[in-house]
Amino acid sequence: MILTADSGSTKCHWALVESANIGNEPTIIETRGINPVTCSSEQVKEIIAEGLLPQIKATEVEGIYFYGAGCIANAPATLELQRTLQEIFPQATTVVVATDMLGAAHALCGNEKGIVCILGTGSNSAFYDGEQLTKNVPPLGYILGDEGGGANLGKTFVSNALKGLMPSEIVDLMYEECQTSYAQIIESVYRKPNANRYLASFVPFMARHRDVTEVRRCIDIAFDNFIERNLLQYPDVEHMPINFVGSIAAVFEQELTEALSRHSLTLGKIERSPIGGMVKYHTTL
Q1: Which residue, 23, 78, 116, 214, shows the most beta carbons closer than 10 Å to its own?
Q2: Contact 248, 119 (CB under 8 A)
Q3: Does some domain include residue 131?
Q4: Which domain holds residue 215?
Q5: How many Cβ atoms sit within 10 Å of the Cβ of residue 13?
Q6: Number of folded domains in the chain?
Q7: 56-93 pLDDT per residue, tens
Q8: Regarding beta strands 241-245 and 114-119, do their DSSP bridges make them parallel or antiparallel, or are they unpaired?
């Protein structure tokens, strides 16, 4: 039995493939997210015991490939997560814990070189040489970077709305559909935790009203900034496919394709989730 995991801080998707039925569709199990930076070993054990072990037999797991946020190569927290997984699954002869960027590269590129991007609440990118990630422009988070991610999109839109740069009817619709107000927005951004997730919560509204010129401009600016401040720093980028994973890339595929075209770049693959590609990579090695 092979387990492949794609984990963020909020949720983790585990793909289970029986070793004798490698070609079959994997069974997907969702648990709470595991981030080694914020989760202790005991918390990891609790999450797996609660959400995963009731549905599988730990002693039958032969290999684990865990890709997640916060899984920095050789970092103490990453090594601790690896030891914890080995303890939970004692029969596993292979336990790999690696960054979500490498997981995305395996899912989207396989053994071919290319640029790999994650566009979700945040954003990230890297050059993949077919085996390893060899260059990464630091994403820097939603305050200093994360261009093109959900928080960045929401921040641009909400800022323009509150500064009077959106049509009044769109601002009124935002208040109504998002069930918020000027005061609630300021409170949520400056006084409550997880401002990045809050700002990203405006993205569905933007998607519904993307035909409004001022809303579309926010989307275009975010993707142009992502390209100019990240992708154009990779050597030979104009000669390689640009691959994306994440909800933002999937929702705004048309806008993203047009932004790449404006910069003479070529779109590769877009996948909402990398888990299927990760499973394929590890079951066809």
Answers
A1: 116
A2: yes
A3: no
A4: 143-220
A5: 20
A6: 2
A7: 888 888 999 999 888 888 899 999 999 999 999 999 99
A8: parallel
